Amino acid sequence: MLSPSYSISPKDLWNAIATPSAPQLVDVRRRDAYEQSPQLLPGARWRDAGATQAWSAELDRARPIVAACKAGHEMSQSAVAQLRADGFDACVLEGGYEAWAKAGLPFVAKPEFDRIAPKRPSLWVTRRRPKIDRIACPWLIRRFLDPQARILFVDPTEVVNVARESGGVPFDIKDVELSHEGERCSFDTMLKLFGLEGELSLARLALIVRGADTARPDFAPEAAGLHAISLGLSQLAGDDDHGLLECGFMVYDALLAWLRFAAEERHNWQARA
User: Fold this and answer.
1) Which residues 6+ apart lie within 8 Å of 78 measured at CB?
2) Element (H, E) at 222
3) pLDDT tens for each residue of 97-155
4) Are residues 93 and 115 both part of a single domain?
5) In a domain, 153, yes or no
6) Is the pTM of this model over 0.70?
7) For a disulfide at 40, which of 16, 108, 189, 231, Cβ 3.0-4.6 Å?
8) Residue 57 belongs to domain spanning
9) 232 is a domain residue
10) Are both 101 and 20 inside the same structural domain?
């Protein structure tokens, strides 16, 4: 977990996203500023800074909370003070959205996210028996778009029908917006649509996913390994799609951690003759 503190820097918050220390991120900008903004911090959900007791019961007390406003002043300070008074481990994002932008860190394209998935928590529908792309996409959704998102797995012929009936977002199936585009996977499509394809580690991860999912191991050296691990996990999981998600998320968390923090590390120990 993050060490208790009254504030966290944008860089430290970014480094905590998609790790075991990931905090719950609350957007407490004034409502008009939130609604007019084209940007959203990854995984953030808007809340009224002056009404913390109305929504804090939905938060996980075992995980830290980061409140972010426009510049790290009265809105986030007020929300954090109230949350701390109620016993939460809460802190302010230093400099708020302005500091995050100045640090060059990625935002989610809010207009596209609101258009695709206007309800929170969001609901997504895809084909059952996932292996690669249909693990990578839910991982991206839960880690960078909506941590409370629900994923439904159904027969391929019923994805569009179930999405229509449930109000969910269909993905990784023919003739829907969030699907393959040529040799690019649904994961690529989501990164592009939601404004995340410019983040270097996610872009490199997309190459690995694409290579594994389209039988092109030449795209990235790690693609063959992801293909083997993914198919092996699928065999072990059987029909337990959600159990497979849990295991698969660990694989993608590990791949992202390697890309962000350890990609240059080398192991070259050799046994003596």
Assistant:
1) 28, 49, 50
2) none
3) 999 999 999 999 999 999 999 999 999 999 999 999 999 999 999 999 999 999 999 99
4) no
5) yes
6) yes
7) 108
8) 7-105
9) yes
10) yes
